[in-house]
Amino acid sequence: MTWNIQDLGRSKNNQEIQFIVKILKDYDLIAIQEVVAKDPAGARAVAIIADALNRMGSKWDYSISNPTNSSSNYASERYAFFWKTSKIRLQKKPSLDKKLASKIEREPYIALFEWKKNKTSFFTVNMHARTYNKHPEMEISNFKYYPKRFKSENIIFLGDFNLNEKHTVWNPLYKMGFISAVKNQPTTLKRKCVDGNYLNYPIDNIYFNKAYFKQEKAYVINFINECKNLKKARKISDHLPVVSELLFKN
């Protein structure tokens, strides 16, 4: 799962945190964007979520990034990963990509995991790109170099990319065998319902290499359901979680 949990920090009360935990608990690996970095409340919220997940019947671990090397405190964020330890092993401590710190507003958070069942290793790149009017494709264009840098094409890109899967910036990865989990799927919420519609832009996604994974299904978790719930839902986030259910091919 990937989820931009808007302004994750002191803006979330206990009830909202528990709502978030109930959504997260059914998945094995979760990438989170937009954890507050300007004060300790963001890191504290991630720890509270991890503790609550561990009370749900499965054992979880988590990792949270340092603040990104952004142009301002307002732009700087943290990322987080959560994973079920019965399914996944962390092979290398996650870290922000220092090589891209001067090129990207919020440099990606990278981890190397192992799927325990078949001992397959895979990289994850967790990313919150800059806004659409600031040309996020200029940041995403750096992704095509990761297979060479990692010496592996077994990579999952997760996050809020602020552009959709049709943009030509993805073409170099598509040529390597990567595909997007969801297509034509709005993942952000409008401020108000328009003719009964509260969904907006298709910008959150998961990209993986079909040589390594077979996708069983992919979807967003629509925790709004009706227009009357929109205002309350937006206190949780203005983005929907995106899920890809993947099987390893080997």
Give the overall average pLDDT.
Answer: 96
Our count of helices gives 6
Under CATH, the homologous superfamily reads: Endonuclease/exonuclease/phosphatase
Reading the helices and strands in chain order gives EHEHEEEEEHHEHEEEEEHE
Strand order of the largest sheet: 5-6-7-8-12-9
Number of strands: 14
Overall description:
The chain has a single domain, classed as Endonuclease/exonuclease/phosphatase (Deoxyribonuclease I, Chain A, 4-Layer Sandwich), CATH 3.60.10.10. 17% of the residues lie in helices and 37% in strands. It has helices spanning 14-24, 41-53, 137-140, 146-150, 171-176, 230-233, and strands spanning 2-8, 29-36, 60-64, 77-84, 88-96, 109-115, 120-128, 155-160, 178-180, 189-194, 197-199, 204-209, 213-220, 242-248. The strands form four sheets. A six-stranded mixed β-sheet has the order 5-6-7-8-12-9. It is globular.
Give me some keywords for this one.
250 residues, 6-stranded mixed beta sheet, 6 helices, 4-stranded mixed beta sheet, alpha+beta, Deoxyribonuclease I, Chain A
SSE layout and pairings?
Blueprint: E1 2-8, H1 14-24, E2 29-36, H2 41-53, E3 60-64, E4 77-84, E5 88-96, E6 109-115, E7 120-128, H3 137-140, H4 146-150, E8 155-160, H5 171-176, E9 178-180, E10 189-194, E11 197-199, E12 204-209, E13 213-220, H6 230-233, E14 242-248
Parallel strand pairs: 1-2, 7-8
Antiparallel strand pairs: 2-4, 3-4, 5-6, 6-7, 8-12, 9-12, 10-11, 13-14
Helix pairs in contact: 1-2
